[in-house]
Amino acid sequence: MKLLDKIESPADIRQFSIEELRQLCSEIREYMIGCCATNPGHLGSSLGAVELIVGFHYVYDSPSDKIVYDVGHQAYAHKILTGRKELFRKNRKKDGISGFPKMEESRFDAFGTGHSSTSISAALGLASAAMLKGEREKVVALIGDGALSGGLAFEGLNNAGSSKADLLVIINDNNISIDKNIGAIHEHLLKLTTDPTYNRIKTHIWNRIGEGKFRKAIQEMVISAKSSLVKKSGGDLFEALGFRYFGPIDGNDIAQVVHILKKLKNLNGPLVLHTITTKGKGFAPAEEDQTAWHAPGMFDPHTGKRITPAGHKESRYQDVFGEVLLELARQNEKITGVTPAMASGCGMNILAKEMPEKFFDVGIEEEHAVTFSAGLAAAGMKPFCNIYSSFSQRAYDQIIHDIALQKLGVVLCFDRSGLVGEDGATHHGCFDIAAYRSIPNTVIGVPKDELELKNMMYTASRHQGGPFIIRYPRGYGEGVGWRDSEFQELIPGHGEKVLDGTSTAVICAGPATGRALEAALRIKKETGKNPAIYNIRYIKPLDEAMADEIAENFSTIITVEDGCLKGGLFGAISEYVAGKGLGTKVTGLGIPDRFIGQGTQQELRSECGYDTEGIYRAIISSWQ
Fold it and tell me: Each residue of 247-289: pLDDT tens digit?
């Protein structure tokens, strides 16, 4: 790390030669690979964007000039260059740095990210503010071709193209999904359109012509002429939106990146630079299997051999979902699967492989995924739309307006509900219960284990009259056998008593049931008595008969949920008890009213007080 070890901030690289920048890019990749081998993270995207990030910090004066990353999966080189090289060893760890850009973490992080397609809108806001304040800072948005498919990205492009803000949008195209380099004509046009004399004359002419029909006619003629030569370059769309389009260039060639950025830095107005990069660049295993190496877990940095954790007897919830969906689809010709670009993550790749005609990956477009599913349901189909819980927030209006209001039978499966672990605050699925509990015509199911997930999916496949939401956590299940069991309908609004007890009743949602049972059995062993444990199964409709029974027979109720306390199960039980005029005391365990950082799921449950130990303490306290 001859060069990297000397760098404390981006200013330290601005006197480097191109050859030194090449060496720096190599050292950053080596360091990144070494760190991620033992402390897993989002590796492939960050390897592919090294030259783009080094080029930005070399040409632009950060943090005065600003870069906004889309999602943030690709931002590791940025963190390493901006004074967080040693801190990067604890990337995504509890009390370490975030895996995503975070404003409170560094003055170089111009905008916090974690969700897709936000960069252009945020960068336009920053650029517009600079213009209003009379500041000369430049703003860059770095967005991947996948995130560019999101609706918010197009909304940002549409607004930015009609503005006068100095905004550069760099498209990090690592799948060549817009187009390929078209050779000599492309190279000639790239040199022409970035030439200072050309742009000075063009700007002068535009200013002299002024606004009006004549200028518009000339613009249309220029666009038409350019299109005849570079029709396949992908530039037409951006030119039509009001951007000046440049590229594509090799985004993994630091010399090209620096050259073009120096040219574009001196241009004003909204610009698009199209770059072609390789996801996983510089590490052969990551280049060869880009999907697996997006977030590969632990691996040998020399051989690339991935290190598999000690074997689990349990199934992952995503695998249960995937296998059960396929089984249901075989039985019911109306069942289809819809996902916004999370097929392998949610397990829907199983359906995609066996029954591709029933599978729809709509791209990173949660709002569209929900309304598309509503359209399928309106035509008599039975769509299972799987969205990560924190991403479902983007489709809130569609769930209300397009599904619930029209009583359409869409099954919404929210994977990664609750505390997800190392991805931190942007990805925790904390708010789904509270968000959707108030919507009429909605069922919200919370299975306690793999078997209940299977049976709840079966129940949902037979349900009509509005959205049927099933939310379940990230990772491995409880070790309950499910593959060989027959389907059983779990009627909405009906829970179960898991353990009889006295004085205190613990009402649980989801896998917290198992932890509560463990705590209760420990207490019984120590004291000879134990609380009653109930599995609510459905937050909506609430099992009112169960709630009445509990309120009549127990002086204290403790609710436990892997979700936010305000508005969740605690809110539902408290409202019911208060509404009935019952005097039962209700205490809630769950996610408190603050954003929770990163760490393992176990560490974070402990922090929030609803791990087994936290439940144990709450029960003991209720008896004192």
Answer: 899 999 999 999 999 999 999 999 999 999 999 999 999 999 9
What is the token pair recorded at 8?
């404390």
The structure tokens listed for 212 are 């009006």
pLDDT score at 620? 96
Please report the pLDDT score of residue 430 as a whole number: 97
Task: Give the Cα separation of 26 and 32 in Å (integer).
Answer: 10
Instruction: Give me the sign of the Cα torsion angle 246, 251, 256, 261.
Output: positive
> Which residues, including other chains, have CB under 8 Å from residue 191's CB and lie 6 or more apart?
none
At residue 462, what are phi and psi to the nearest 5 degrees? -100, 0
CB atoms closer than 10 angstroms to residue 87 = 15
Would you please indicate which residues are annotated as catalytic (active-site) residues? 279, 366, 394
Residues with pLDDT less than 70, the chain: 176-234
* DSSP code string of 457-511: HHHHHT--SS-EEEEEESSB------TTSPP----TT--EEEE--SSEEEEE-TT
At residue 234, the pLDDT reads: 58
Q: Which residues pair with 172 in a beta bridge?
A: 144, 275
Helix (H) or strand (E) holding 621: helix 612-622
d(CA 297, CA 32): 13
Closest CA to 339 of 324, 320, 325: 325
Give the pLDDT of residue 18. Answer: 98
Is 0.85 surpassed by the pTM of this model?
yes
Confidence at residue 210, expressed as pLDDT on a 0 to 100 scale: 65
- Amino acid letter at 72? G
> What is the model's pLDDT at position 212?
65
DSSP 355-393: -GGGEEE--S-HHHHHHHHHHHHHTT-EEEEEEEHHHHG
List of residues 6+ apart from 502 with CB closer than 8 A: 529, 530, 531, 532, 554
CA dist., res. 402 & res. 412, Å (int):
13
pLDDT at 52: 98
